[in-house]
Amino acid sequence: MELLLEPSNWALLAVIGLIAGFIDAVVGGGGLLSIPALLTLGIPPHTALGTNKFAASFGSSMAAWTYYRQHLLRPSFWYMAFIATFIGAVLGSVLVYLLNAQWLEKALPLLIIGIAIYSLLSPNAISDTDCQAPTKAQPKLKQSLQGLLLGIYDGFAGPGIGAFWTVSSGSLYKLPLLHSCALARAMTFTSNLTALAIFGFLGQVHWQIGLWMGLSMMLGSFIGARCAIKFGMPFIRPLFILIVLSIAANLAWSAWF
Prior knowledge:
Elements: H1 7-26, H2 31-40, H3 45-69, H4 79-98, H5 101-121, H6 140-156, H7 161-173, H8 177-201, H9 207-230, H10 237-256
Helix pairs in contact: 1-2, 1-3, 1-9, 2-3, 2-10, 3-8, 3-9, 4-6, 4-8, 5-10, 6-7, 6-8, 7-8
Subcellular location: Cell membrane
Family: Belongs to the 4-toluene sulfonate uptake permease (TSUP) (TC 2.A.102) family.
Membrane topology: Multi-pass membrane protein
């Protein structure tokens, strides 16, 4: 934690937060940058996850609000997903807290690498072909299962959760890309806020770092959501994944070898 006394590290956290927020708002996966950055600074794994939830809440709220204002999200269509995501995030947060910190430190890099490889190998998982904006609420069972499973994952760890929401929503409901992104941001905000409440109660949040990175994520998410709405940026994924793989490989080397 002595590394946090260095001004350069605070600047680094701000830059990473800005980039992570931008990427999160466009394609999802900002946690693949922010969590390794927190771990690299020597923050314990459980505290790194809790701090990231705090920071990510800023970014996901800004992105969700931006999409909502553009009429890309109707919360009344997705109330079952909100409920299921909340329940899943509670279960996942409690489960990860019960895990041994040393085991978690070794498992997180492998989890991050796995998700990065999945995202790299499925760059065309999201498509707007034959997709139409939803005009009614989607099936409750699909919403419940999707929300519960992804809520558990986000409460447990969360790297890449935005990408999982975007890909699965496009597949399950045949949503256009921007509507899938909007739903992903709203649901990740729900699970982030829920997990944050539990991590905070358990004393596993570094509030100063989370606030600093969260404000940067909020700015990045605003820019990213606006760019996604105007342009769409799927071309950033390969470069992003390669950077994340490098960071995760370094963490894995430190944790395992």
